[in-house]
Amino acid sequence: MKKKYYLRSFIIAATILILSSFYNLPYYVSKPGLAKELKPIIQVENGYKEEGNFMLTTVRMGKANIYSYALAKLNPYHELYKINEIRRQDETEEEYNVRQLYLMSSSKQAAIETAYKKANIPLKYHYKGIFVLNVKPNMPAAGKLKAGDRIFKVDGREFESSEQFIKYVAGKNEGDKVEFSIERGKKISDVEVSLQRIEETGKVGVGITLVDDKEIEVKPKVTINSEDIGGPSAGFMFSLEIYNQLVEEDLTRGYEIAGTGTIDSEGNIGRIGGIEQKIVAADRAGAEIFFAPNDNGAKDSNYNAAVKTAKDIRTKMKIVPVDTFDDGIKYLSKLKAK
């Protein structure tokens, strides 16, 4: 009888534990991810080889359940964020993921621009249309357009920038209808949407957040297989790897070099989130040097947070502050080869 009681109690307790793991709290939890070598991810056609490695660093981000929440409270390198600290107001989980993938795509383009400009290699741009980042609820586009849609024509017209698109739509009246030619996945379709006045701007629109969708054409050709990595924080490290394959001099000098930071088309490096977790990830991967955004010397810079974490975990990694792509190149140029 007692065996049956214990067995029943065990089954009930196990069931409760399993079910509770699927219950999400209104938080996201981030933890150290991986430091990935960039040579297998980036290939420049007939590019030069390197003795060392450049590595991008990641954090693992997911919705918190009661167990990951409790663990984050105990682990100094697990961070908790309220949902509104991660996702925009009215942004769905799908829209958030689409935005992260777009940010990764735009960071790749900026990295290519920066590296090829530094190597004095010309670039060509091809405008593809408008990329929908998110759709506001209770607006005309809701239910008709989705995050990830590419709008390449409006009323049969093609445009060369999002500014031209916005100007055309703003020149119409509330209640007018416009026809969007869109690409969703691999399917092409036409969608008719009515215009409504947007309270925030006073102008007419359909209720979408959008950005330009463009491609860069370069020779030699470069391929970046970032798969499902989201966000813009790998941009700077992408630019270093691309540039290093474009030029004969090996800037790695045989070292394992990790880092993080956004990059724009002018080579400016921006701060990122999760620097503490990325230091842990890089140390675990055996990195010897870590580039951290310096925020032009701000007290709360990524660099200062990285230095503190490096001391806390007693890593031997050299933490290097950078504000621009050129800062990284100057540092690497002075390294003594192994």
TrEMBL record:
Give UniProt keywords alphabetically: Hydrolase, Membrane, Protease, Serine protease, Transmembrane, Transmembrane helix
Provide the active-site residues from the annotation: 233, 278
Q: Where is the PDZ domain?
A: 129-186
Tell me what reaction this enzyme catalyses.
Hydrolysis of proteins in presence of ATP
- Keyword flag Cell cycle: no
Entry-linked Pfam families: Lon_C, PDZ_2
Listed Gene3D superfamilies:
3.30.230.10
What SUPFAM superfamilies is this protein classified in? PDZ domain-like, Ribosomal protein S5 domain 2-like
In the UniProt record, the signal sequence range is none
Which GO molecular-function terms appear in the entry? ATP binding; ATP-dependent peptidase activity; serine-type endopeptidase activity
Every copy of the Lon proteolytic domain together lies at 225-335
List membrane-spanning regions. Answer: 7-29
* InterPro entries from the UniProt entry: Lon_proteolytic, Lon_Prtase, PDZ, PDZ_sf, Ribosomal_Su5_D2-typ_SF, Ribsml_uS5_D2-typ_fold_subgr
Tell me the Gene Ontology biological-process terms attached to this UniProt entry.
Answer: protein catabolic process; proteolysis
Q: Would I find Signal among this entry's keywords?
A: no
Question: Any idea of its EC number?
Answer: 3.4.21.53
If you read the UniProt record, what top EC class would you report for this enzyme, in one word? hydrolase
The family line of this record is: Belongs to the peptidase S16 family.
Name of the protein in its database record: endopeptidase La
Q: Which organism is it from?
A: Cytobacillus depressus
